[in-house]
Amino acid sequence: MLKIPPHQVAGHQAGNGKLGPLVDESGRFYKPLQGDERGSNELKFYTSFSSNSRIPEHISKFFPTFYGTQLIEASDGSGLKPHLVLEDLSVGRVNPSIVDIKMGSRTWAPEASEEYIQKCLKKDRETSSLPLGFRLSGIQIYGNRESGYWKPERTSMQNLPAEEVKLILKKFVSSNTSTDMDLQPDCAFAATVYGGSTGILSQLLEMKAWFEDQMMYHFYSCSILIMFEKGLALEGQNPGGQIKLIDFAHVIEGRGVIDHNFLGGLCSLIKFISEILTAPNEHKSLVSSVNGVN
Amino acid sequence: MLKIPPHQVAGHQAGNGKLGPLVDESGRFYKPLQGDERGSNELKFYTSFSSNSRIPEHISKFFPTFYGTQLIEASDGSGLKPHLVLEDLSVGRVNPSIVDIKMGSRTWAPEASEEYIQKCLKKDRETSSLPLGFRLSGIQIYGNRESGYWKPERTSMQNLPAEEVKLILKKFVSSNTSTDMDLQPDCAFAATVYGGSTGILSQLLEMKAWFEDQMMYHFYSCSILIMFEKGLALEGQNPGGQIKLIDFAHVIEGRGVIDHNFLGGLCSLIKFISEILTAPNEHKSLVSSVNGVN
User: Fold this and answer.
1) Residue A289 — pLDDT band, cuts 50, 70, 90?
2) CB 3.0 to 4.6 Å from A141: which of A150, A211, B157, B210, for a disulfide?
3) Do the Cβ atoms of A2 and A30 come closer than 8 Å?
4) Where do the segments described as Disordered lie (chains A, B) (predicted)?
């Protein structure tokens, strides 16, 4: 029984007769193999990566498990089509808060076609990719049973200035996001989601150490997903904060150089998260002191 | 008594009636203030940086000391012109080996003019900036009293692939560079120049830690100079390996974001230097084992 993934926040989406990924009940995610180079390139990456003995386990856990390819009925009704069979990353999650962050100030590889380069360059310049080294590609923030999810229009997230990106990353780990989005986020779950020895920051730093060293792959235009369960955080339990890397249609070989483009964006993201952890109420206390409360 | 700097390896150079920097005997370096935005921007940077109390001393030492501006006779005979007065970085050096490395895979700031952006982007794509995150802008390697300096054509250094850049960075710290440039470099001084607690790698890592944190400036199109005295190394003395940052005509404000573009290139450079330290004879032993020597 295939269905449309309930928690996809970016990328092509199935539904309304469109082609997009599907999930089954056994925890597998079926991603249509794009007909052009992108499809064959992503398959090439998964095939190489999943059999690469030089990937340490503490790094491979950041990637979806790859189960090969399979012909299944495409979501757009166009018949049997080849799909990548991957781990469904939302398995076991009830009401996940998810943000999709497209990494790198440059989303194109040097050897891409001129047309593709110009298209990407234009988008990188129009969005926050160029100034920030990454852009928010999509987000859903769980509020509570009544409010459900806050899931803003994807394009509205892509070109925010630094201060607003920081605000979104604060809202992402706040308890007061559902009722009034103009409220200063309280960052109630910053310490438990972003912080701690197994939190998001630790995971990003683990990934950074690998990127400072590995010269096997350059990950153009791929995304980091950050996920956690606000429900668990509200109950005082470990919210299961987790990062995953996805979307490998533009991965190329490293050729004796580290992926400085991805790494630069990763360091920038790490700085945002670190600052939120260090001064979660920075803006609030500024307001308070202006009001004479402090 | 102003004269042409004897050890300049990149940038505009005085001589033959051209406009370029001059030095005096008291250790000052006079850089003509470029007439356009670049001149005023570089002056703005030096003025801001030299009075910025948030720059720790272990970082400010990587920058030339700034002594203000002065009207002096320009090197091209065009009369009195305003010059930046800076520390002459070659003071006290006898036969310095120097490499000038232009940092960042992108040498243009987002707000530059469209014409300038297109010019830089073209050059970044044609050189090793895009793939490597930096490009070699100029180099001089001291051989010995007889051979003098190896100082290849600057443009020949800018678009080398990773393996050749690595070879140049090996030659830079080798004793056998002067006689036969086709010889595998012996990396005789790698440990004393690149390695050690005060060596080049340590300095680069110190700089990296600052770039992971600082959000004051973004250093587009600036260079890292690496310098040392081979003569001292040959005598078994400390070769005085030193890095300096120069050329700030395209520095802009950080606006709440780290300089991920410079940082990415810096991490890439650090990886090259680390690899040379870890496996200085990598290529040689490969050759040896092919020849059955090992």
Assistant:
1) very low
2) A150
3) yes
4) 1-22
Please give, rounded to a whole number of angstroms, the shortest distance from the CA of A288 to a CA of chain B: 22
Helix (H) or strand (E) holding A138: strand A134-142
Model ipTM over 0.90:
yes
Residue from B260, B267, B273, B274 to probe the interface with A (highest A Cβ count within 10 Å): B260
Where is pLDDT greater, at A286 or A190?
A: A190
pLDDT class of B292 with cuts at 50, 70, 90: very low
pLDDT in tens, A35-94: 888 999 999 999 999 999 999 999 999 999 999 999 999 999 999 999 999 999 999 899
Q: Which residues of B touch A212 (CB under 8 A)?
A: 267, 270-271
Specify the length of chain B in residues.
Answer: 294
Residues of A in contact with B161 (CB under 8 A): 255-256
Q: Provide the sign of the torsion angle of the four alpha carbons A272, A273, A277, A283, taken in this order.
A: positive
Task: Specify the CATH superfamily of domain A96-288.
Answer: Inositol polyphosphate kinase (3.30.470.160)
B34-40: long-range contacts, CB 8 A cutoff, minimum separation 24:
B34/B249, B38/B249, B38/B250, B39/B82, B39/B249
What is d(CA B281, CA A126) in angstroms, rounded to the nearest whole number? 46
CB-CB neighbours of B75 under 10 Å: 24
Nearest to A204 by CA among A131, A280, A134: A134
Contact B221, B107 (CB under 8 A): yes
Could you tell me how many CB contacts below 8 A there are between chain A and chain B? 81
> In this structure, which topology does domain B96-283 adopt according to CATH?
D-amino Acid Aminotransferase; Chain A, domain 1 (3.30.470)
Question: What type of residue sits at position A144?
Answer: N
CB B265 within 8 A of CB B219: no
Q: Where are the domains of chain B?
A: 22-87, 96-283
